[in-house]
Write a structure and sequence with these properties.
The protein is an alpha+beta fold and 499 residues long. It has 13 helices and 17 strands. The chain has a six-stranded antiparallel sheet, sandwiched between helices. The protein is elongated and about 200 Å long.
């Protein structure tokens, strides 16, 4: 009985398989014909079957018309990479027969001559004792267009971020990981290949004076649901300080809990430098316009020392090969023990000091080492910059700053040189105005002297004339009196004769 049961069971399974095969074929045919992708069957002779989507995609009306064409007729002669379509397709078919499947992108051609990109999957299998291929072709025109548009937008965004020195970031609060765009790595002076960082890493890139403000701003964003917006200084691995502007928004879950923050960061160092430059220039211009001559040099030097973070300095000008330094800082003047202190230094007294070399060589002289060539009694110089003020290639003045707590940098040189370029024409105009005033005062003094001398001469001449006049007029009066007396005498004589 048990044996008969096994036989009966085997017969039942075989019967079920026989029934299932037509059902399976029907299901496959339904999927085959209803697929939105083109499905074609081919062997070594070419196509022998296709679904309805094949006709629609390739532009044919009847299956009979499609299976008559050669597979090379549904491709342009060459692929976008320049490969010959016939050779490349043969290689792809061989790869599919070898490995069972092969997937690749391909440029197909419709019956009307229009080309379209496609994703092709070749599957090899045995059908009724022969090897065949099923080619599944999916039109990816829209996908490619979307991808190209996304790639274009990504490229434009990357270029915009690069030009604007701006990058995007995202902070995942659950993992504490921070994701940066390429430009953010560049702003921080880091390699984009180093991958995502965490929030603690970000905090460690901040300058010490900015860290507390940054932490408070983040806390306010989390607790008060405020936007994150601020300017902070970061320090790169090479020590360069970078001014940044950062903005961010918090993302909350359905229950109102913060989950992510995303935003942007922009390198605003150039803008800050420009703002600082304009501020310095405006301040100095105001001093030259509003401050009397005898106070200008002191006031300008105060600005320079503040900008250069230096306690000591001088601002002088050249006058007939003499360096005049009316602005020598009071600290230098009080600390200097050199006898016969003066603010005028004729050329023959310059020696080989850094500032004299700066003037004579018309270039910046600076050092971050203590000076060993200063005279006895002079203030100690630990580090310094001597910069000639040039106008049209000629030295008209000098800046010197000294004893900054840290080394002077190329940025310091650029800043001081910028100030010198701005000061040069204004200083020259004031010096010319002063010289013109001095020349006018000298002419006025000479004129007054000449007037005074002429007045003395005129008085002397007048006195002489008056004296001469007194003598001349007196004689004339006596002559008149004599004539009158003679006339009287003649009259008396005449009267006597008549008697």
């Amino acid at each position: 009985m048990r044996k008969l049961a096994y036989i009966f069971a085997g017969i039942t399974k075989d019967k079920q398989a026989e029934v299932a095969l037509p059902e399976s074929d029907e299901i496959y045919r339904t999927l085959y014909d209803s697929s939105a992708d083109a499905i074609m069957m081919l062997d070594e002779k070419g196509f022998f079957d296709c679904n309805n989507a094949t006709l629609r995609i390739f532009g044919y009306l009847k299956k009979e018309d499609f299976i008559k064409i050669h597979p090379s007729d549904v491709s342009p002669p060459y692929q976008p990479d320049g490969a010959d379509s016939y050779t490349a397709s043969s290689n792809n078919i061989a790869e599919a027969f070898k490995n069972g499947t092969h997937q690749f992108e391909w440029m197909h051609r419709r019956q009307n001559g229009g080309d379209f990109p496609a994703d092709v999957l070749l599957t090899a299998f045995e059908l009724k004792g022969r090897q065949v291929l099923q080619a599944t072709v999916r039109d990816i025109t829209e996908h490619k267009q979307t991808k190209e548009e996304l790639d274009k937008n990504k490229m434009m965004l990357t270029k915009a971020q690069e030009l604007g020195r701006m990058g995007s970031w995202e902070w995942d609060l659950a993992t504490n990981n921070v994701t940066w765009s390429k430009e953010v790595y560049i702003i921080h002076g880091l390699d984009p290949g180093m991958g995502p960082q965490n929030h603690h890493f970000v905090l460690n890139t901040l300058a010490p004076e900015c860290k507390n403000d940054f932490i408070k701003a983040v806390s306010d964003t989390l607790n008060l649901k405020k936007s994150f917006d601020g300017e902070y200084i970061i320090i790169r691995p090479d020590g360069i300080r970078v001014n940044t502007h950062t903005k961010g928004e918090m993302i909350y879950d359905s229950e109102g809990h913060p989950v992510k923050m995303y935003g942007m960061v922009q390198n605003i160092t150039q803008r800050k430098k420009l703002e600082e430059k304009l501020s310095i220039q405006s301040c100095i211009a105001s001093i030259f316009i509003t401050i009397p001559d005898d106070e200008i040099f002191d006031e300008v030097l105060k600005v320079i020392l503040w900008v250069m973070q230096s306690p000591l300095g001088i601002f002088g000008y050249l006058e007939d090969e003499t360096l005049v330094v009316p602005s020598m800082t009071r600290d230098i003047w009080n600390m200097c023990n050199i006898s016969d202190k003066t603010i005028r230094f004729p050329k023959e007294t310059w020696g080989n000091s850094s500032w004299s070399r700066a003037i004579l060589e018309k270039r910046i002289i600076y050092s971050n080492e203590a000076s060993t060539s200063i005279p006895d009694g002079h203030v100690g110089i630990q580090r310094h910059i001597s910069l000639p003020i040039l106008l049209q290639g000629e030295v008209i003045g000098l800046f010197q700053v000294a004893n900054k707590e840290t080394d002077y940098t190329k940025a310091d040189l650029c800043t001081l040189n910028m100030i010198a370029d701005h000061v040069a024409p204004i200083l020259n105009a004031r010096l010319q105005h002063r010289r013109a005033d001095e020349g006018m005062h000298k002419l006025n003094a000479e004129l007054e002297q000449r007037v005074a001398e002429r007045t003395v001469q005129l008085k002397k001449t007048n006195d002489e004339l008056e004296q001469f006049n007194d003598i001349f007029v007196g004689r004339e009066l006596r002559m008149i009196e004599l004539k009158e007396k003679m006339a009287e005498l003649e009259k008396e004589i005449g009267e006597l004769k008549t008697l």
